[in-house]
Amino acid sequence: MTPEKKKRISQIVGTAVAVIVMVVLQQTVFKAPGFDKVLMQTAQEMNKNCPFMVDAETRLDNAVAAPGKRLEYNYTLINTDKDSIDIESFTDYLQPILVNNVKTHPDMASFRDNHIIMDYNYKDRNGIFITKISITPELYQE
Predict the structure, then answer these.
(1) Domain harbouring 44, CATH code
(2) Closest Cα to residue 59, out of 80, 41, 42?
(3) pTM value?
């Protein structure tokens, strides 16, 4: 094989390798995982209706797609001061309800299928953080 032919083959192989590396980098490093995009879109859609009164005591302020396949819901207890609430009892009461909702609600199926963590953050009427209840796949896939 002539030196010119070897050089040409090396150039073709080098170009092919460069293209493959570029495609792999785009697919792995520069592209967000598919479901993270779905979570961001879900949060954006929810936020179009926020703030939203869930019931007479609870307002959904917003939703945020967070890293690590998490969706955060931020609530305000509009008639409650942090000092007047038993946080442990509040959490013990609310967590099973939230878990059951994730387990059974048809709209949550894609979240279950994709092992999403849902964080429910609560603050009092003065904006003071009360508690965070995390619903993990281990809880809703029992």
Answers:
(1) 3.30.300.250
(2) 80
(3) 0.74
